[in-house]
Amino acid sequence: MRVLSLALLLSSLAVCGCCGNLSAAPKPPLAAIHSGGDALARAPYMGWTTWNLQDVHLPQYNNKHWLNATNVRAQADLMHRLLQPHGYDYVNIDSGWAGPYDMYGRPLPDLKKFPGGIAALARDFHKRGQKIGIYWIPGVQRSVYENNPPIYGTKYHVRDIVAQPPVAGNAFGDWHMKIDFHKPGAQEFIDSITRLFASWGIDYLKLDGVGPGSDSEVDSRDDVRAYSEGLRKTGRPIWLEVSWRLDHQHAAFWQKYAQGRRINDDIDSLTPKITGWSQIMKRFQEAPLWSEDAGPGKGWNDFDSLPIGNGSMDGLTESERRLVMTFWAINCAPLYNGDDLSKLDSFGLKLLTNDEVIALDQAAHPAVPMVGGAHQVWRADNGDGSYTVALLNLGAEPATVAADWSFLGLASVQPVRDLWSYTDLGPQRNKFQAMLPPHSARLIRVGRPSAVSQRTPLAISGLKASSRYGGVQLSWNASASASRYIVRRSRSAHSGFQVLNARVTQTGYLDRPAADSAPYYYQIAAANGAGASAMSQPVGAAPAREEHDRVISIDFTGDAIAMDQDEVAGVVPAMHWNTAPCRYGGLPLVDSAGYSSGAWVQYDAGGTFATPIPDTAGGNRMMRGYLETYGHDTTKITVSLLPPLLAKYGYDVYVYCDGGNIAATRTGKFTIGDQSVEVTDNAGSFYSGAYAPASASGANYVKFSVAKGDTFTLLATPVSSTDENLRAPINGIQIVPHAR
Asked: Per the database record, which ranges form the Alpha galactosidase C-terminal domain (predicted)?
């Protein structure tokens, strides 16, 4: 995106009265942790973006209302059905998803557009093998600077990290202010944002308005480095794309810190058509300069979206649309469409789903130019003794375009295959030439793979499926020549298999389907640039349905160190406790497997204590700290947007309330809805490795039952005390689903 909508983030910022000095940075919970590493960018990504429809000058799309969860979900459904079987799996939400900022100056979704937040979409998309991306820009928005919130997990505030005197933080102007990354707290601020994004389950982050480039002298390299480092620290494989029209002088930097980079202006024409031929021609100005810079370990040159699915909307002829797909694929550019997928025409669908052309893109052997000018020839070394060649007529008149075998270092007679028509053209002597209409292309494979090169991978072996928390875990043995694996799923072992994910690069896959107890069946094929193996024999397993498979646990730590991810606490032993460090604020919540739940906690207390409540009898603990009340104040905690299964079947709420009491006997009242329970904490009582309910001596927790609904509010009110300190502490909360 180049022209930024002011609707992106213009909103008020809620500021908290967070504890001012944190002794150690709490470790926020992460979303699902997968091994990414080099596999993340082994090949360019494929998917769909919202931006073309947001930017096309048609009233049904180009308005402030079109970008919303309903419309994005509808396009994702269509992508799942039409394009995902061919490898398209990213659903990227561009500018306009964000609303307010949280108490730490971090962006939150606009809940009017996305009622369940980004996490709800991520959860649904992941269940069917899709990935989700969002958009962001460098710098600190001016309103955040003026409100000066604390930086999560530090003693610093936002004004402490902004460059002085303030200057523009990105190519969109000075409404975002530049961060000085030499200042303490600056990297921590970015880390807090990337952790938040990871907790939602995002898989892709587009960082826009980056320079040098973007029609701007702004230098965003420190920002890119910081976001790259922040994403790495989350432990979640998240693709970082930097944009737009980046300066080639810094190609090595972009290669080091991002998986992909936009090297051109936007492809959008800012008219009632998505693009036009003049916008396409701009790709040819920059592509030769960057052609040697793409590949595995280097990242990918992004030419922008593929507006080729609907001739009436795209602004291109059929020949031009085929040329676009040809040029993107032979250069191994990311393949992401931006059309209204409900209006794809038959020609556009054929272009987007030609598996031989897609395989060329995903084989990760980018092309280099052989002949320039109006009649271009590009060639890609397939790495197996053969070449793929694109012949392009960029001129306004028909022209003969030829590729000479001597340029390829090949013998005089070579077999040729036309990738667009799936046709073997037979042996060709010395060269291949074709008369091309204006703005058209041919795409051919020349030569045959060498004898030692395997045409297609061998079938996989050792496929296993096992029940896991919330899903089915697949594992299999590697096929030696495979570059990716295709996963198919069905509810029957005999028929009905559909592609779930066509771009798996590991020898394992966690499928998180709808939560039910019926088995799913799976097949795997190994694939590379030459094709795919036969499908494996199906194996099946049912998602694990433990009673407590959706537990959400919150630890009110004060300024204490957060619980380690492998620490277990609570009446219902659960890992992955959410860390709430301040006396009031808001926090997105993960579940006990570390996955984003989509839920949110908002809380307000008189104070917070970092005193951990140790186990006097063993090595357990009752959380790390507690929220506190003073005088007759009432602590209020609201949890909202709970997962649908909890909202439907109900849940228990465990409230832990041990203040490590020494001096006095104190009574507090805890209330949810029309349920109220008083708990007395006797002087000299200590947690001793056991949780005692409110009805027992030495009580340290209260249990409430909520029949249904996605929101509840907990109130904690002091009642009495044998000293002057009225208290009703809350160490933590667990939300445990009812049996289904």
From this structure: 373-446
